[in-house]
Amino acid sequence: MESINLVYNKESLYKTAFLLSYITIGYNIIEGIVSVLFGFEDETLALFGFGVDSFVEVISGIGILHMLIRIRNNNGESRDAFENTALKITGTGFYMLAVGLIITAIYNLITFHKPETTLWGIIVSSISIITMSILIYYKLKVGRFLNSNAIIADANCTKTCLYLSFALLIASLGYEITGIGGLDSLGAFAIAWFSFKEGKEAFEKVKTGKSCSCEH
Predict the structure, then answer these.
(1) To which H or E segment does residue 109 belong?
(2) What is the pLDDT of residues 46-69, one digit of tens each?
(3) Which of 23, 32, 35, 49 has CA 20 to 30 A from 98's CA?
(4) Count of domains observed in the chain
């Protein structure tokens, strides 16, 4: 009877892990669409870059979903070819985003560009901070119950998304308060930095085979 309950509990935990993965992917898609549209409309580079980053995170999320399916089927936690390919695409996407943001941010600083408003940056980043905090908490909880280093590593690496949200919030709030256009560009630089780190981390994962190369 005890073994049956153990199997049942394990199955429930995997269902929760899958639900968290679906929520992560779905949320990033919605967040990406909203951020890119309003970032383009309001001419705020930080919000636009944040949105593109969300789309790249979707690819990463698909790789993580595939990982969960493999682990659930008892194929171990060693990464397979599909996940390595997803990581390479993700890493390349982050690098391209970082370069694009840096070039555009420099141009905006030189031309003294100012966004129309960064109100949506405040709204999106605030919602993202709450959502990412909840996802991190439950991913860690499920990962520890399942004793899965891969799921725990995914939860820890999700903290980068949290840092990105804080960077966007500070830049957006700062502009709304002061009207200094350079703050939007500084926010874009911060997002570019985190994107570069995520890209580097993705390729390090492929190279080392580790679930997460970030330090926490």
Answers:
(1) helix 81-110
(2) 999 999 999 999 998 998 898 888
(3) 23
(4) 1
Domain contains 80: yes
Phi, psi for residue 112 in degrees, rounded to 5:
55, 40
* Other beta carbons within 10 Å of 16: 16
**Angstrom distance (rounded) from CA 216 to CA 187:** 23
CATH of the domain at 57: 1.20.1510
Cα–Cα separations (whole angstroms), residue 89 to 1, 16, 56, 71, 136? 46, 27, 9, 22, 24
Tokens standing for residue 112: 């003294």
Spacing of C-alpha 49 from chain mean position: 12
Q: Measure the CA–CA gap between 112 and 185, rounded to whole angstroms.
A: 10
Instruction: Note the pLDDT tens digit of each residue in 88-119.
Output: 999 999 999 999 999 999 999 999 999 999 99
Dist CA 94 CA 52 (whole Å):
9
Low-confidence ranges of the chain (pLDDT < 50): 1-8, 213-216
Is 214 within a domain? no
Apex CA 155: angle with CA 150 and CA 161, to 5°? Answer: 130
Residue whose structure tokens are 């959502």: 131
Give CA–CA dist 113/10, Å, rounded: 54
